[in-house]
Amino acid sequence: MPYASGGDADIYYETHGHGTAILMSAGMGGSGSFWTPQVAALAQRHQVILYDHVGTGRSADNTAPPRSISGMANDIAHVLDHAGVSNAHVVGHAIGGIVGIELALRDPARLRSLVVVNGWGRADPFLRRCFEVRKQILNQSGPKAYVRAQPLFLYPPRWISDNAAQLDAEEERILAHFPTAATMNARIDMFLAFDPGDALATIATPTLLASSRDDSLVPAYLSQQLAAAIPGARVHEVEWGAHAFTAVTPDVFNDMLLGFCSEVDAWTP
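Request: output the structure for the sequence above.
Response:
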């Protein structure tokens, strides 16, 4: 699979299928593999572009300093350019959604639509407390403890219990590509500082805000607040699936996303 040049870094990406492009940006972990439950369904109608954030996954072998939100938006543009795509449906989970918001503010011509999954416009005290705890786990107990605790923030309790063997097997894979502590700390600090304020009212890109009512890391009310700030933004809430409902109930998410993209494509040249 190819690498796109991000100026001071090489960005791993891969493409699947054909049709109008959907670029998918992961959350805190940064790996495009987060979207594996989406690829087969979406690639039947679309060109699906996955990439690893600079400093993570297969884009980790770089000497570039930790990215800013602005730099991460530039990275999306570099990936699209390298893939020969003028614009795409940009789908971002959590921090990936924030990067999508930044791109919509700076370069809206690159987006056919914006889908923010479990995102926010400004971190509130609850979100800050959650990530303070996650930083403490990482910095005081190390990556293994951080990865071990991660499912508690991402998935519903019953799903964790039913999929314990799968989660145990995934730990070693995640640890093998885990970013440095410095990179993770910088990423957390960066997105907690994100606050576009009144600029959100200038977004004209068709926007869908997807959330889960049982998300205990990024509560659904943050998506509601974001919807109030972005003109015309839609909200789609699911009942169950927590922060990673894209993996817990992939069919629900895939149908929602395909329906939204089809609607946008029907009236977008």
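The chain has a mean pLDDT of 95.
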